[in-house]
Design a protein that fits this description.
It is globular and about 60 Å long. A hairpin with a 2-residue loop joins strand 8 (209-212) and strand 9. The strands form three sheets. Strands 1, 2, 3, 4, 5 and 6 form a six-stranded antiparallel β-sheet that branches. A two-stranded antiparallel ribbon has the order 7-10. By secondary structure, the chain is an alpha+beta fold. The chain folds into two domains: 7-106, Phosphorylase Kinase, domain 1, CATH 3.30.200.20; 114-329, Aminoglycoside 3'-phosphotransferase, Chain: A, domain 2 (Alpha-Beta Complex). 42% of the residues lie in helices and 15% in strands.
Length: 332
């Protein structure tokens, strides 16, 4: 279904949820985010300004196999109540609301565009603080027991099972990319075949943070959360794509790997196996490459016509180069 967000309809949802008088005067689509549609909502509650964010599935309903936004909202609340910096969920859309699959959360002040907080001088102190802040958030998330997520339909599996699933998807697209073929074979020889040990965010990186001059204020976009290996989040954070040109700073474009590992361990995380993190960085690079394939397929198939998705498809080759560099040099 196409997204058709009416202010009066959303105001009715918020009034029902809060039990107070809510007015919605403006809903603006925000840039960024390839898999979700995100909107800034100008609202008032009992006469006072109440800035909100609404996030919906890009096509109105979840893509096959994707996490429903109602699940994402509940997952974010678990993380927030555990002390992670996460926006509070205000309302979860129901089918009868006619607004698609989505939820509304509080708006947190700060910068979400990574190239800005990674380069502008006013965020220099934030960049200094973010390695330790990210490490602490990850350690806290990975320490949560699986029972904390009871009732949530979350996926999971051994690293080998995740790799096999991704390889099957790759074959279904009917494409031949030698660097990706090599990466699948390389990972098959190295990824463990162990059961998942923790809830991982799945997309913990620059571009999915709200950052203030004091550093990390909120972690966004939890729709890839699943049970897995904690080192998956670290390898993903260190991927070259998420440095946004600051390639000399491997941790999100703002920090160093050893500082991340030390801060993670100091915050209560398990001792970090450096060789294993490298394997997960290769996996993250391949996974982003596969995401590029899937997103351009959305555009070409007509499921979600999008210039952004078409453009992302052109980044498939960047990941080929990054993979070959990782194989030859061990790190970027």
């Amino acid at each position: 279904m196409a997204l058709d967000i009416k202010p009066d309809a959303l105001a009715a949802v918020l009034a029902r949820t809060t039990g107070t008088d809510v007015q919605v005067t403006r809903i603006d689509a925000l840039s960024g985010g390839a898999s979700s549609a995100t909107f800034a909502v100008k609202a008032s509650k009992d006469g006072a300004d109440w800035p909100l964010i609404m996030q919906c599935s890009a096509a109105g309903e979840p893509a096959p196999g994707a996490m429903a936004k109602r699940t994402q909202a509940r997952l974010q609340e678990v993380a927030r109540k555990a002390g992670l910096p996460v926006a509070e969920t205000v309302a979860i859309l129901e089918a009868e609301d006619g607004l698609g699959d989505g939820f509304v959360m509080t708006r947190i002040d700060g910068e979400s565009l990574a190239p800005r907080y990674l380069r502008l001088p006013e965020y220099a102190a934030a960049r200094e603080a973010m390695t330790a802040q990210c490490a602490t958030a990850l350690a806290r998330l990975h320490a949560l027991p699986r029972s904390a997520f009871d009732g949530l339909p979350l996926t999971g599996g051994s690293p080998q099972a995740l790799l096999a699933k991704s390889f099957a998807a790759y074959r279904n697209f009917g494409i031949e990319l030698p660097a990706y073929d090599l990466a699948f074979a390389w990972l098959k020889e190295r990824l463990p075949d162990t059961e998942p040990t923790a809830l991982v965010h799945g997309d913990f990186r620059s571009g999915n943070f709200i950052v203030g001059t004091d550093g990390l204020r909120a972690i966004l976009d939890w729709e890839l959360g699943h049970f897995g290996d904690p080192l998956e989040d670290m390898g993903w954070l260190c991927g070259n794509a998420w440095r946004f040109g600051n390639w000399q700073k491997p941790v999100g474009g703002f920090g160093e790997r050893e500082a991340l590992y030390a801060a993670y361990e100091a915050a209560g995380g398990a001792k970090v196996d450096r060789d294993a993190v490298h394997i997960w960085e290769v996996w993250g690079t391949l996974r982003w490459g596969m995401s590029c394939v899937m997103l351009v397929s959305d555009h070409l198939s007509g499921r979600v016509p999008s210039v952004e998705r078409a453009t992302i498809g052109r980044r498939i080759s960047e990941n080929e180069l990054d993979l070959l560099y990782l194989f030859k040099h061990g790190s970027i």
